[in-house]
Specification:
mainly alpha; elongated
Length: 152
Amino acid sequence: MTTSMILLRLATIGWGILCGGVVYEHLAVVPQWAKQPPDSLAMWTGPFRVKAERFWMGVHPPLVLLLGGALATGWSGNGRVPLSIVLGTYVAVLVVTTVMFVPELMKLTKDPAAAIPHDEWARRSRRWERLSIARGVVILGLFWPLLDALSQ
């Protein structure tokens, strides 16, 4: 087994973990905090707050490195096109997440007592949730080209 295939298999396992996190967040966490802001945002504050960033900041760097390593060590293989699609789209999603999703989430969750009108909380939370679901669909959809690269 080649280095590229080992890295690709590890990346596929990591992608499964990422997809599990996406599904869990959108089935269990996001609906709770978006239910009735600002009251429902209390889960993000205080000494016993949810610290989801521990998972997200821990899963992305190794996954990018594994995908990049698999691509770099297997550049001449047939799986380079689907793997390039996965890595390129994933990096683009991470850039959008860093520029748009994280700052908006921080604004929403940092201070549930902020003087934002109630309907504004609800509107922004719903918008964030809808856009995040679309982002999740993209991440889940990238499993197919990843599996295609794995089958090459």
